[in-house]
Amino acid sequence: MTIEQVVILAEKPSQAKAYAEAFQVARKTKHYIELKPSPVLPHGATITWGIGHLVELKQPADYKAEWKRWSLSQLPMIPDRYEFRVGKGKWEQFQEVKRLFKEASLLINACDVDREGSNIFYSILKQTGVRNKPVQRLWINSLEAEEIRKGFSNLRDNRKDLLLYQEAQTRQISDWLVGMNASRLYTMLLKLKGYNETMSIGRVQSPTVFMIYQRQLEIEDFKPAKFYELTGEFASQQGKYQGKANIKKDKREEVEELLKQAGVQENTPLNGIVKDVKKVKKSIRPPKLHSLSTLQAKANKMWKYSPAKVLEIAQSLYEKKLISYPRSDCQYITDAEFNYLSGGLSGYQQLIGQRFEATHTKPQRRYVDGSKVEEHYAIIPTKTIPTSAKLNGLSLQEKNLYLEVVRTTISMFHHDYLYEETTIITDVVGIEFKTTGKIELVRGFQELWPAPAKKKEEPYLPKVLKNESVEAILHIHEGTTQPPKPYTEGQLIQMMKTCGKIIEDSGESDILKEVEGLGTEATRAGIIETIKKHGYIDVAKNIVSITDKGRILCETLEGSLLASPSMTAKWENYLRKIGNNTGTQEAFLNSVKKFLHHLIETTPDKVEKTTIQIPQESLCKEKIDIVCPLCHKGKLVSRKNFYGCSQYKEGCSLIISKRVASKMISPNQIKELCQNGITKEIKGFKTKKGTTFSAKLKLEQGKVTFVFN
């Protein structure tokens, strides 16, 4: 009888190590770990691993030598068949995996439990050339020893796994096709316009940059406007309070006219009457459980951690067996998780130093709903409750994130936050003023979090009675509308997730909501890091802004499907069909090829007609043929940070800075300034305080000044 040889493939060494710790180890090597026989694995097993992506798609030059050179004439680059290669520096590990796969009688896919984990396993298996071996799937949400053993005792067949692999590989190939072709297309077309930068285009990264660009335009185009409201100060027998009328006008005169019609004046003592007093008890329920994106948003708001850093910390806590699978997009758990959390409630309370009597002892559908748990449940603490020593051994970032997960999870057992809201309606000469105040009754779950250092106090409201007379003084309050705020990195994650709200087509919007927007929980942080790396956005003090390069990308892509989340909606809709066995890879790739042919055919004319502002430092080298407006003898010469006159040695002192009030001035604007003495209105200047403004530039006796309309 042949002894079964089981080979387990983990996604990476740390995952393999966690699996091995659930069993007894017979031998460890550089490339694999051998396990002793156990009740779960009667003949033992060998665990090996990938190192990230052991296998990757080949580069264009691997298919054809002529594809190495970036050229419009070579587009589109569409291989007859898609080929893969072993990643650089990973050959030795791949060879060991290949040998073990050949010797195995059973293979177990123990990579991450998502479509990319399926892709990693099967792309490696295919590259090894090993065929006709039975494959089973490990599907777990925690790296605790008990959960690992339970998972290996209940392995799944690989039917769904194979479909997820087809879905993931289709996405991978399609992203390769769009990225390789569109990046070269736009780079070469922009080069013809004088822009000498490499542009990286992607199905997900490009619409993400475009939404940041749109927010920046909203901020730059915003025109502050004054508005006028009517407020009142009231004195009752029990004390003073303030209120506001439901009046908001663009001109002060309009509010003054209302007062005139009522026969009263501003800042003059008047009689008022309390028309109504309502007291309503209200409650706020504990927050929903964390998915990765909500955890990223919360950590960014509280500690300014970037989304990529949060994923890194969460992955570390997962590998330390303290939290469940970190790339989850789910905010629900099943009864099984609720039961172990309920049983360990006292231990979790001790971790945060907050004891409370559980109010909700039975599962609530807000948190516990097995029908909404698919591959993964919400991010929650595992059964493993760390000792004080282990907790204190965590880094500050790990401890912050772990305790946030603990607090949010156990808050579902706590009391709701209760408060009483009082609304007073005060009538003065027929004008109603509304006053609201809040009194905290029960802090409930909010006591699990440290109180904020600065908390805006709710206004104290004196006890007033209906029909009570009060003294009143009315004021006209002047306010100014505020521009939209730029995104923080945490808000960017949420914006990517909820971008379905901004799509006009209801069908596409519904799809984006269903697939939860651009990217996945696992990839959004990486996408943000990618667009940072490509120089499309800057992040300073947690505030995201578009760069000159990002602006040029968006100006060029505007109106294209590549600038819209709609493309992701269409793609994800069909990719899901592949994962559900109702669509095929062939049909999808054919549609992508048609899209590429259309893109390559229509884009050159569109880019040619697009007016873009190219920063001087990114221009291809070219001669500047502008006569000096000061001496009228020399020509303008481009220096690193300014334009000067070629006659400077003969005494011409002209200097025009390339950057004015934080705004790069384009060569066309310089030409206009020198030839006409004044430019058209230019947007995007900034004051020292960071406020944006628009102005014309004027050249007088060699000096540049602002002209405001």
TrEMBL record:
Q: What is its EC number?
A: 5.6.2.1
Q: Name one GO cellular component term.
A: cytoplasmic replication fork
**UniProt cross-references to SUPFAM superfamilies, sorted A to Z:** Prokaryotic type I DNA topoisomerase
Molecular function, one GO term = DNA binding
Catalyzed reactions per annotation: ATP-independent breakage of single-stranded DNA, followed by passage and rejoining
Superkingdom of origin organism: Bacteria
Occurrences of domain Topo IA-type catalytic (ranges): 161-600
What are the protein's UniProt keywords? DNA-binding, Isomerase, Magnesium, Metal-binding, Topoisomerase
Q: Which InterPro entries match?
A: Topo_IA, Topo_IA_2, Topo_IA_AS, Topo_IA_cen, Topo_IA_cen_sub1, Topo_IA_cen_sub2, Topo_IA_cen_sub3, Topo_IA_core_domain
Pfam families the UniProt entry points to = Topoisom_bac, Toprim, Toprim_Crpt
The signal peptide, as residue positions, is none
PANTHER family tied to this protein: DNA TOPOISOMERASE 3-ALPHA, PROKARYOTIC DNA TOPOISOMERASE
Q: Which family does it belong to?
A: Belongs to the type IA topoisomerase family.
Protein name according to UniProt: DNA topoisomerase
* Organism in which the protein naturally occurs: Rummeliibacillus stabekisii
The organism's taxonomy opens as:
Bacteria, Bacillati, Bacillota, Bacilli, Bacillales
